[in-house]
What does this fold into?
Amino acid sequence: MSGVLAGQVVLISGAAQGLGESHARFVVAAGGRVVLGDIDGEGVRRVAKDLGEAAVAVDLDVTEPDSWAAAVRTGEAAVGGLTGLVANAGIFGHGDTATVDLEVFRQVHRVNVDGVLLGIQAVVPSLVRAGGGSIVTISSVAGLIGIENHPSYVSSKFAVRGLTKAAALDLGRHHIRVNSVHPGRIVTPFIDGLDSAVLPNQVIREPGQPADVSELVVFLLSPASRFSTGSEFVVDGGRQLGEFRP
Ligand SMILES: NC(=O)c1ccc[n+]([C@@H]2O[C@H](COP(=O)([O-])OP(=O)(O)OC[C@H]3O[C@@H](n4cnc5c(N)ncnc54)[C@H](O)[C@@H]3O)[C@@H](O)[C@H]2O)c1
It folds into this structure.
């Protein structure tokens, strides 16, 4: 995979830890440069420092348009004009459908859905200037199937999947591709406190690792995926195929 992203500059949201940090490491290993944004400023500066000259850290709250504008400005001044976006930042919200707190529901949507829309809007002018680019949205298997007790998260990740298709249609004329990634359970701080890293209905009986998702993200950012847009890419160990008894 070395060199497949040479010359590319990718903004990654939620890059202080977990999947976003992993995507950053994989993009740089593939020859790209990265602008790493997170509300955890200290965490994202640590990751950027580790990656050296190919990376810059920016403070980013994905729910705020001005924050995205500043991230693009600062990032481009440091590492060059953007050619890609990984809209990765996301949060969970607990509570079942009958009783979930409206403010929890709205906050999950603000981060997971508004945050993706605002990210796309912030990078489009740069990608148009570059003559095109690739946007990868991080949805979830929860954007393909329901999960009990997670109405906020499931509805937000279905929305990301739909937004991805709408954006692919609107941006195709600018040679901008937009695809969604749907991870199953992956070992990151996000799943701390959950019962098990391997789900009962998962066909591949090993925990999913951040690298499993980042390999796919690099492919979608690279010219190797030039004929794919508006599509769903699942990386879940076969978790949502159907009934399965290991
Ligand atoms: N880990 C999994 O099992 C899994 C499965 C499916 C989908 N996902 C999705 O992958 C993405 C990354 O998940 P992860 O496992 O790395 O989670 P994580 O909790 O380890 O990391 C998320 C990062 O997003 C940042 N963030 C949160 N709110 C933000 C905001 N308003 N602005 C900017 N940054 C913000 C956090 O500070 C954190 O660094 C999320 O969208 C998540 O829904 C994760």
User: Anything to note?
Assistant: The radius of gyration is 17 Å. DSSP finds six helices and seven strands in the chain. Helices lie at 18-29, 41-51, 65-79, 102-129, 151-171, 210-221. The beta strands are 9-13, 33-38, 55-59, 84-87, 133-138, 176-183, 232-235.
